[in-house]
Amino acid sequence: MIRLFHVPLSPFCRKVRLSLAEKKLEVELVEERYWERDPDFLRRNPAGKVPVLRIDDMILSESAAICEYIEEKHPTPSLMPNDPEGRFEVRRLVSWFDDKFHHDVTSNLLYERVNRKLTKSGYPDSKNVKAGSKAIKYHLDYMAWLLDRRRWLAGDSMTLADFAAAAHLSSLDYISDVDWNRSAVVKDWYAKIKSRPAFRSLLADHVSGFPPPEHYADLDF
Amino acid sequence: MIRLFHVPLSPFCRKVRLSLAEKKLEVELVEERYWERDPDFLRRNPAGKVPVLRIDDMILSESAAICEYIEEKHPTPSLMPNDPEGRFEVRRLVSWFDDKFHHDVTSNLLYERVNRKLTKSGYPDSKNVKAGSKAIKYHLDYMAWLLDRRRWLAGDSMTLADFAAAAHLSSLDYISDVDWNRSAVVKDWYAKIKSRPAFRSLLADHVSGFPPPEHYADLDF
């Protein structure tokens, strides 16, 4: 049995959930309030963060390494291109979303609006929220630039790069922080990925105290 | 000709330099003062950061993706294990150093003491420096725990994980922020990696306004 210790709106956990689901690997989800620093959890993962995946008798942390491991052990359907250049582009974009987008957008919007309340660490800092709202426009435009040239973010097939991006955007969409009217190609891309069976578990998430907007789970948003 | 746009003490650039040198790929180093946001540089790399590598007529950014690309195109000598479990552990540790160690230690020490002065953005924040000095002890202990069980950080052979760690520690050693007396196994590990020909270019670095301590380039430190 595969078990994933996660929090529902974490984009890093969502990326792993999407990878597992796309490969039809059944997983038991265990919500882990990592900020409470449960000693059992810290023993499993000295970095003290989620996701943590128990699979093949191993306990894995770090979402990028986890997704590459899943890909190598379960290569079908493939989420990585066959050529080194294609794989480079996927890894570059995964880092782009998990480092830069995360720093510029996710941490300023999702962490301010949701995580602060969940972890009881004060009120949202409006300066950060404003910076995040500004930065997401630039990132949506960059995605539109890529999608004007390619069917999917890293090329002509769907890859881990699309899952990394969709993981961040779906968490932000849960709190209505994505303006889908900004770019038609980005909206089309999200509609395509949102309608995949792998996405269903994400669309069923409900975080206590934060009801999702109606459009969140609607495939015709 | 391979060209690397870099700054000398950036651990991300150093990791790429070590990978290239270990594989005996000659590289032209171009110092890039990325914080001055030169338009030519931003055109090459919209993330506006280093390293940026020009190789095989491609322009590559994101150090983890760059190192995997170099590894795939030039697999000998190998810096990645052959089994998925071994590769997972390498990628986990690369993320550990480039995310967690970077956040806890490098950004608090190197960026406060050096980057602030270089980029003319004020004086070191002593609170951060104190936090970094405390955190590096915990990280050195974690490395010692790993090295008590393994010849190299990720297993029995030298990998990208060792280069990621050595890249951070060598930059910190340049400003005398590593206490090599804390752990004999960590010191032995660093002595081994420091004496490799691939390390020579790093040991020859000189940053104007920041002369390195005598022990920095000394193989018998």
TrEMBL record, chains A, B:
Q: Name one GO molecular function term.
A: glutathione transferase activity
Q: Which GO terms describe its biological process?
A: glutathione metabolic process
CDD domains assigned? GST_C_family (cd00299), GST_N_family (cd00570)
> Which SUPFAM superfamilies does this UniProt record tie to the protein?
GST C-terminal domain-like, Thioredoxin-like
Show the Pfam families listed in the entry: GST_C_3, GST_N_3
PROSITE patterns per record: GST_CTER (PS50405), GST_NTER (PS50404)
Gene3D superfamilies listed in its UniProt record: 1.20.1050.10, Glutaredoxin
The record's InterPro entries line, in alphabetical order, gives:
Glutathione-S-Trfase_C-like, Glutathione-S-Trfase_C_sf, Glutathione_S-Trfase, Glutathione_S-Trfase_N, GST_C, Thioredoxin-like_sf
Q: Which domain of life is it from?
A: Bacteria
Query: Where would I find the GST C-terminal domain in this sequence?
Result: 83-215
Domain GST N-terminal, residue spans = 1-78
Q: How does it assemble?
A: Homodimer.
Would you tell me the protein name for this molecule?
A: Glutathione S-transferase
**Species whose genome carries this gene:** Pacificibacter marinus
The organism's lineage is:
Bacteria, Pseudomonadati, Pseudomonadota, Alphaproteobacteria, Rhodobacterales
